[in-house]
Amino acid sequence: MLEEGLLKPSPLRHYLIASDFDQTLSFNDSGEVLAELLGVRAFKEKVTGLASSHLVQQGAELAYLIRHDPEFRGVRREHLIEAGRRAHLRHGIAALMEFLQQGITGCRFSFAVVSAAPREIAVSALSGIVPPEHIHGTEFDYDPTSGEVRAITRVPAGYGKVAVLEELEERLGVTANRTVYVGDGSSDVHVMLHVNSRDGFTIAVSENRQLARIARSTVLSDNAFGIVVPLLEQVLAWPVSEIRALFELRGLTLEGWERARMDRVKIDEAGPPAHVTPLRSSQAVG
Ligand SMILES: [Mg+2]
Questions:
Q1: Residues with CB under 5 A from ligand 1 (ion)
Q2: All structural domains of the chain with their residue ranges
Q3: How far, in Å, from the CA of 184 to the mean position of ligand 1?
């Protein structure tokens, strides 16, 4: 039997929490903010047209337009920074950062933003909240004389997000089963499938039907801190009472948590009950 003094402390489990930016940490879409700033008309139609052609990865439409659409030719770095300032952020991002930074007993967390949005926009929007070195977004090469975008050097959209995630895991020494990815839209499908396939965990923060089927959990909240609920409950297997206590310690109440679960139960009376399909846990969690 080992004497107590010889017992080594068990190493901290290291988790990577990777998050999308547009409509995950923010409410609005970077592209729309930028288009408004530049006076670009019919931005949504441009994106829809490009998306239906499948020329670029889902989520990379803005990057393509900035480089190739004549109406975006005037984009300079300053416009991206200003668009970031105009982004409408979700509440609780600073509290989420503080929580992840502190870690919890037995665990430590690394946080990264992995977004198809221009990196300058996300860095500017999250200034003072998320350190720039933790933000991975679309990167451009600018003409040194005119300041014009002359090339796209990297786009973390669609499968591009997988590449960034794998680099991060390797650099941080995080195993794939300890990667958690948070996102809201179709640009997150590839990366979520990838994370799930390697026993990581995925959280959707919107009612996007495509994602709801893929994500292990769905959290609908105006507050970015809401992702802590499935993180503690489903990844770290905390009892509900302890999760409530943690929120209360921070002056937060989990109002509507159960209600959200109830809201997700759909009772359909049309037609005779042929069989009963059990709910998957991801459908039962609000
Ligand atoms: Mg998004």
A1: 20, 22-23, 184-185
A2: 10-27+89-266+278-284
A3: 5
The answer to whether residues 80 and 34 touch, using CB atoms and an 8 Å cutoff, is yes
CATH topology of domain 10-27+89-266+278-284: Rossmann fold (3.40.50)
Determine the Cα–Cα distance for residues 190 and 279; give it in Å rounded to an integer: 24
Token look-up 């393509």 returns 64
Where residue 192 falls (left for φ over 0; alpha for ψ -120 to 50; beta otherwise) is alpha
pLDDT in tens, 136-147: 999 999 999 999
pTM for the complete prediction?
0.86
Kindly give the distance from the C-alpha atom of residue 21 to the centroid of ligand 1, in angstroms, as a whole number: 6
Greatest Cα pair distance in the chain: 74
Q: Give the pLDDT confidence of 71-99 residue by residue, as tens digits.
A: 998 999 999 999 999 999 999 999 999 99
